[in-house]
Amino acid sequence: MPWFSELTAALHRPSMRIALIVACAMFMQNLDSTIIVTALPAMAHSFATNESRVSEGITAYALAAAVCIPASAWLAERIGTRTLFSGAIAVFTLASMACGLSGSFPAFIGARLVQGGSAAMMSPVGRLIVLRNTEKHELMSTLSTLVWPGLLAPVIGPALGGFITDALSWRWIFYVNVPIGLIAIALVLAIIPNHKASERTAFDARGFVWLAAAVGCLSYGLDLLGGEHIEAPLALALLTAAFIAGYGAVRHLESAERPLVRLDVLRKRSFRVATVSGGGLMRAAISATPYLLPLMLEVVYGLTPLQSGLLLLVYMAANLLMKMVTNPIIRRFGLRQVLIVDGVITACGIAACAWISPALPTSLVVIILLFAGASRSMQFTALLFTTFADVTPEERAPASVLLSLTQQIAVAAGVASAALVLNFTRLARHTVAFGAFDFRVALTVMAALGALSLIPYASLPKDTGAEVSGHGRAAAS
Length: 477
Hints:
Oligomer: single chain
CATH superfamily of the largest domain: MFS general substrate transporter like domains
Shape: globular
CATH architecture of the largest domain: Up-down Bundle
Order of helices and strands: HHHHHHHHHHHHHHHHHHHHHHHH
């Protein structure tokens, strides 16, 4: 099997070993943000409160992560990538233990804030570590390793959280991070080199405040729009504040002599398309699907969390299976063509999910989920390759930070948009409970949103990322 021999050869490269270590740490971080969902009722009972209030733990985590991301590149340059990455894992692990040991709700929220802040240092810095230890012609194989945490965690998190909560206690969904964190720290310290800037620069406090205010207000505003009870006035006020702060941040970062995050990389079409325009639209559409599907299956069709979780495992299996053939396909057809063709397939897959129901034969439901999961996997991988296709080594730090910021915003925007459509159609039908029609409209709208990404994809040059993907060499041979 060619893919197996290729994988075996890749594991002998130091860059691939580093990528695997970083991917494991990022998986722990991504899993933690989703595993809590099914444990909310048990946590609410433990803290003698309601599920709505306990869900503030999810908001606190996401908000802290969004606010702290802009500082990650500066800290990495100042104290070293290995030092910051291992330190972030250590703080994340300790905060996980504090979450599990929390005896009161305020203590739990405080621990979640620390968790989110440390998580903000893990994704962009981990990605930067991989980029700095990888030659450009090896980027495709190493970067593809960093895709699977984002593919798997949102799918298996809720099911795993429910299983651990039922079998042990909700506190164990946080305790499981302790051994994983300790092993990750040991591997990071043993294998990953410590890169840091030779010249120290002052911290751009003004830039940090502008960015933190913009991203924090935007994340919280979108979260309010996507909540069960939409708080429109406060959400609109926060989104307005985010726009004003974002404008101030751009003005400052473009004029500052040593900005916290350089925006030059946004002038590169491939980066801009993969992170902001096409990539932003597609990530928002894809991120809404794991949110909508379990709700539809459980609320409308009466499936248990376990039954809906098992169906989502099919979705996850397709992600994994697709990873085996993704790189050869991209190498054969090129990034632009894969983004466009797979973009069409991904949009159709999201739309097809709208028609999943117990009335369909199980085999057809499985085919739809495999179809949607495989195209999702291909899309995320191709977007990541396109993001760094034309980024120079000097631009990799700000590029990694900007990618993390845009991903955070896209996911929040996708869930908020889906929730808005759900509530709008429900209110238009003058009913209290959600119905199949509401979810079908929401998934169809998300599919249309994903289809819009094809417009910026088509603007990419045909040879985009040829050096990374090896498309030209594949065609010549």
